[in-house]
Amino acid sequence: MEIGHVSKKVDMNDGEWVDDIPDLDGVRLKVRSTKFKPFEVASSALIRRFGKRLRTDEGVIAFRAASGGPLADHILIDWDMTKAEGSIALTKEGKPLPYSREDARFVLTVDDDYGIGQIYRQGVEWAGDRVAEQIAARAEQVAGN
Question: pTM of the entire structure?
Fold first, then answer.
């Protein structure tokens, strides 16, 4: 990599729209990279907080739901439900649910019997990983490798 580019900051605040998310047909998510520093810090703190409880089934289930908090606070920026169908199509009064941080936090932290919370957590993390890959690819392009 060109030495002058090493310390060049990458703006991850705006995020990117991601389509074709597994198990979220028709849902578009605007997400930041899962390499976004505030997310990494919050996730590490969550792991430390759960500690030994992660060795039990109940602890793992609770951790999965709690892991939605950092996803909602740092990764998910927006969603588009206009083309979503079936049980994953979040609606309010019969219309696609507009994004709000409160609704995102609820959806991403819920431990529901339908598995909707888990599907959305996995989808947001998958989309954030794709953005991280895109940023890494752009860095390689800048490096000329």
Answer: 0.85
